[in-house]
Design goal:
Blueprint: H1 2-16, H2 23-28, E1 34-38, E2 44-45, E3 51-59, E4 71-75, E5 87-90, E6 101-108, H3 110-117, E7 123-131, E8 134-135, E9 139-143
Parallel strand pairs: 2-9
Antiparallel strand pairs: 1-3, 3-6, 4-7, 5-6, 7-8, 7-9
Length: 145
C-alpha cells in the first residue's frame, strides 16, 4: 500500500512540475479570452425612437471575469446602410463590474433615421464592444419603416 501511495504522489508532483502547460489551461481546455455582447430587446424597430439595451460579459483565458476594464463601444465602421445612419451609447464608456459584466443602451439618431430610412427596404448597422483589445460579437440593429 505504501508503494502505491508514493507512486501516486510522484505522478501528481511530476504533472504539476511540467513546464509545457498551465494546469488551469489543461483543466479548462485552454479557453480563449471571450467577450460576449447580447440584448434581449427587439433589434428590429419601426419608428426610429426605441432604445436597445445591451449587456456584455468579458472573461479571461481561464474563464475568470475581467473586472474594472473600460469598454469601448462603437458602430462597426462600414456597416451602416445608409452610411449616414448613426446613434449614441449611454453610458458611452462603461466599466466592467466584479463579474466582468457591463450594461449600456444604444439610441439611433432619430432625425437621421427618419430622413434616411423612410421608404427604404431596411436600414441596418452593427454594434460591437472592445475590452483590452478583445472585440465582442456584433449585434445588428435594423430599422424597417
Amino acid at each position: 500500500m505504501r508503494r502505491i501511495t508514493v507512486a501516486v504522489a510522484l505522478v501528481l508532483l511530476c504533472g504539476a512540475c511540467s513546464d509545457d502547460e498551465n494546469p488551469v489551461d489543461t483543466i479548462l481546455g485552454g479557453l480563449p479570452t471571450t467577450h460576449l455582447l447580447v440584448t434581449s430587446d427587439a433589434v428590429i424597430d419601426t419608428d426610429c425612437t426605441d432604445q436597445v439595451f445591451l449587456v456584455g460579459t468579458a472573461l479571461d483565458g481561464s474563464a475568470v471575469p475581467i473586472s474594472g476594464a473600460q469598454v469601448t463601444l462603437e458602430v462597426v465602421p462600414g456597416t451602416p446602410t445608409p452610411g449616414t445612419l448613426t446613434g449614441t451609447f449611454t453610458p458611452t464608456s462603461p466599466t466592467t463590474d466584479l463579474f466582468g459584466a457591463y450594461a449600456t443602451s444604444f439610441t439611433l439618431d432619430g432625425t437621421e433615421c427618419m430622413a434616411s430610412c423612410t421608404g427604404a427596404a431596411a436600414c441596418t448597422l452593427d454594434l460591437q464592444a472592445t475590452i483590452s483589445g478583445v472585440v465582442s460579437n456584433t449585434v445588428t440593429i435594423t430599422e424597417s419603416l
